[in-house]
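Work Package 3 (structural annotation) set out to generate three-dimensional models for the target panel prioritized at the project kickoff. During this period the team completed the workflow that converts sequence records into discrete structure tokens, so that structures can be stored uniformly alongside our sequence database. As a representative example, we reproduce one entry of 403 residues exactly as it appears in the project archive.
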Amino acid sequence: MRASYLVFGRPQIEQEEIDEVVDTLRSGWLGTGPKTAQFEREFAAYCETNCAVAVSSCTAALHLSMLTVGVGPGTGVITSPLTFASTANVVFHRGAELFLVDIDRDTMNLSPAKLDEFLATQCEPGRRGSRPRHRASGAEIVAVMPVHFAGRPCAMDAIASIARRHGLKIVEDAAHAIEARYQGRKIGSIGDLTCFSFYATKNVTTGEGGMITLADEDIAAQLRTTALHGLSRDAWKRFATSESQHYEVMAPGYKYNLTDIAASIGLHQLRRVERNLRRRDEIWARYDRELADLPLVLPPPSAPESRHARHLYTVLVDPAAAGIDRDELRQRLHERNIGTGIHFVAIHLHDFYRRHLRLNPSDLPEAAFVSARTMSLPLAANLTDEDVSDVIAAVHDALALPR
């Protein structure tokens, strides 16, 4: 057994980030300023799109995106049940109706076939350019929010085709998918707006932070205004340049801006992103090889011409095959000093949304199936070969099978 505990999702911080943060602290400019702007430019270039708007979290990014595409009272948004709470919460906070469509069990992503079926069977078709309306609630469906679960890109061609047919906006939840590509196109350059996370466990971290990518520069300018109280000029433009120091409140905005301290970390995280992906590819391949003979369902291969971001290595624990359930296996790994994660308890199984949406587990059976069995193993660029060996040995030992 390992001598020390292997923490799940421990971030990789190197000397470049430390030096950049110290430089920011010494500069006297800690808030949103030149390093945030630089981070936005480099992130947009990496995502092969025109614009990137840095914000304080992926939740903030999703909330601003909902506002931008017209989500509010009387409207509805469709998304996946296998996601973190913020994906659903931002719809609720806009006063809109949340509609969950089940996943494909293999990919764990929103099923295009079930999305098409939902719009055909539960919604009245739009007339004369109007969008479909949900028959029971009367909500006008305005957007679909695919979630690129674990870093695997959704079937965006099929989803985009359905969205175009019904006049829906696409807001992508790419919290797991910074490095992902779909059919050769970079995630961040496909939907109307794409939202990324820089939380501490993500492949690129700023501690807390997020980004919105999009093609339209005018909408990007509106997003920046809304993310900073609705002010016409941010503090950097008022105090550090020759521009007028006056500002106007253009709209009742939010306090969602990213700081230069956070951007200082993100700049170097982003510059190492491809190198780190190669390391996670190596770990992923070892897991595939050395766990293949165990009674676990391993992640399927990536689709042709697409790239998995390798954010989470999730296995499914079938109690009938493994002899123990997921929670018991996690406990045994914990006792062997290996930390694991659960991604996720499906949205419709949580207390609030179970009551609010009035859904039973059986209403979204694929998401419920995965939710009861999913477990994520440590996967990070800073894991050593010995760390990976410890994880593999612990899983074998915990399942009481010979190596």
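Residues 273-290 form the longest helix (18 residues).
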